Every structure is written in structure tokens, then in C-alpha cells.
Amino acid sequence: MPTAIVQQARRLTAAGDYMAIHFDARVKPEHFKAIRDALADNPNVTFAKKRIKCGWGEWSLVQASLYAVEAAVVAFPRATHFYMLSGDCMAIKTAEYTHRFLDDHDCDFIESFDFFESDWIKTGIKEERLIYRHWFNERTQKQRFYTSMEWQQRLGLKRNIPDDIQVMIGSQWWCLRRRTIEWILDFTKKRKDVMRFFRTTWIPDETFFQTLVSHLVPENEIQRRTLTFLMFSDYGMPVTFYNDHYNLLLSQDFLFARKISPEATELRARLGKLYASTGIDFQVSNEGRSLHRFLTGRGRIGRRFATRFWETESSLGRERELMIVVCKKWHVAKRFLEEARKATNVPAIEYLFNEENTPLPDLGDIQRTLEKRTRHRRALMRMLFDYYDTDRLIVCMDPANLDLMHDFFSDRSVTRMLEIVCTFTDSYLSGHAMRVGLAGERTSKSALERLLPTIRNDIHY
Hints:
By secondary structure, the chain is an alpha/beta fold. Helices cover 41% and strands 10% of the residues. α10 (246-250) links the parallel β10 and β11.
């Protein structure tokens, strides 16, 4: 860790940037001494006047940030922007690109969404973060954390949020203009009531700066996004980047990325050289999150051996015949259905489980969303048979809808399937990748070529 921080400081300051460092007081003193000694002769580096022990989810993270910001404001009067970084962040654009980008955008970059109205918090407690006081760390003192909150609930010790404050929430990785930082520091001195409130909230690094920026800065001067590229896995853990992520990182519409693995020495070396480079034209396609979701999902498709709740619903009917047209090229299946309607007069419905806007009759709201159609698939199909007053019905399905096909084939009705087999050229697969968000117009040819075999295998599967 000390080595990574020293290298990061040298890279950034060599390009004319400044760095203010707060180093966790929990860490061994010799590590901090190594950093100070290595950067002692660097005029573009300063250190927080006070070091404190930091704990995940605690006020200490915000206080440490404020100490670093205060030191930077005093030491670097020419600094125009203040960018929050951690030791495992690295630049994924050149200094030339980064400086020009910030000069061209006179605004603050910070995720900032309404705490109560947004769905930013996916799991765990929500309003309890604010309305109760938290003195214990949920990760290291779990029993005390929840016992304290339970007693506050029992005793009715719910507290009010300061009247003129609308609490906001978002990522802790922000980039703010100097004027905004000065406003925040001034606010912290004047509004002791707000400071007392946030000191005992839970995970204040996701709410403190986000709330103050929205409170102090005009709406049209805030870009509610972070300039740091980060992703989370299905388990809620930050995704770590390794040597083979270099091209993916450079194509994202961000200036920095976290987390860069300490073991990714090649990636760190390449990104370090990149920041000092000039004249580089970046092809930003921004497909990183969808691409990562697609690639990491391969091989994790679940299999089931027990019946699901909808399989106990009544049959479509022994006398009814459901004909399923399966084709990966949707436009081919749609042309087939158009001809089938003309030739047979059998009701035919296009990809009703894949396309939200598929024309469907009003069936009392069950047809409104893909989720409802899929969840109540047999009930939906029975209603369609009844609506069209027919015993024969044609529908289109994507080959990926295996669960749906298994479900309908297990029914007592007659179910038939016609598979239309198509040839998939590289040109078609490239277009498919762009349609589903795995690639963009600016995705490099080499990146697409590496992606195509995976897409082809997925479609064949």
C-alpha cells in the first residue's frame, strides 16, 4: 500500500497535479513514515494536519476527507478541482485529456440522489441510517449496533433531520470545484447542528458531501455522476481490475477507475505511462458494465429440478394446440408469422416474452410488463386462447427462453415447436452486440473481434 500511494503521487504530480494525503492512523507508523520520507521533497504533495483511525461506514471516513481537503486548500491555492481518490484508484485517461475535460465542464461531478425517493440503497437499513444515532460499527460491533438501534426504537428516540436539509445519497468518489469545496468548509464551521447530525449517521460518506453539494450549489451546476469508473458484483462487492482490462478501462467515459488489483503490475505500469502521454485520441464506447455482466454471467446459468409455483396452475387445455416459433433472428420469425397469418388465419403473436411493446389485447393488466407475462405465463396464454376464441395459437420465442419452453411442453395441451435455424455472420453478431449494449459505435475493431467468439458461443448455446 505505501508503495502504491507513493507511485500514484509521483505520477499525478509529474503531470502538474497536486495531492493531499490522509493516511489511516490504524496503519503501522513505519508505513506512514515511508510515504512521508519518499515524498518529502515533492512540493506538490501535502499531508492532512491530523490523522485519525478510519472505519467502514463511520463518520471517520468523512472527517479524514475533510482533513485532507483542508490541507489541500491551504497548500495549493492554484488548485481548481478537488478529486477524491483512494490508494487503489488509477487514471484511465491522460493528464492532457483530464485537464481539458475539467476545464470544459464548469460544474461539480458527484452522484446525488434523493435519499428517500431513489432506489440507490439496494439492501440493508435505509431511513434508520438517519433517524437513529449510531455510535457502534455494524461490521465490528454488530450486536451493539443493532441493540442500540432497537432500544432507540423502543424508547421512541427517533430524531428529526435538520429542517432545511434534503438528504441526498450517492457514490463517495466525487470531483468538486474549488469554490464548492470552500463553501463546504465554510458550511461545516457555521452549521454545527448539521455536523452533529451527520456524525452519528450510518455510512455518512455516501450522504454528507452529496447533501451539502446539493444544498449549496445551483442545480444546473451539478452533474449527478461520478468520474470514477467502478462496478459491483452480484454479491455487492467491488469488481477488481486486472491486466487484461486495459482496453476496457480506456474505452469508458470516466477519468479514473477503482479498484486496480495490487497484483496487476502490468496494468498499473501501462496506466502509469498513459497518464503522462500526449496526443492520444480515446474511443469512448462506455459498454463496460453491460459487457462485464455478460461475460461473467457465462457458465452461471442455473438449472432446476423441482417444479415452480406456476407449474401447478391449471392446464391450457387438452384440446388446445400451442405452436412455438423459435428463432434468434427476430425479424426473420416476424416475417414468417406475417405469412402464417395470411395463409392459415391462426392468431399469431410475436415475441411477447421478449419485447415490451408487442401488440397484445387488454387482458386486465397481466400483459402490461414482461415480468408479469413471464410470471403468469400459463394464465396469460389461457386468456389469449379465450380472447381470440381459438384452439390454435402461434407465438414467437427467443432460444434463450428455455424455462418457458419446458413449462409449456410439460402442459397437457398439444405443444409444437418450429425452430428456424439461421446463419450468424460476424456483421450480424457485431450489430447484435450493439443492439443489446455489449458494444457501441466507438468500440474498437480489435475489442469486437475478441468479443465475437463469446457472443457466437452464447447464441449457439
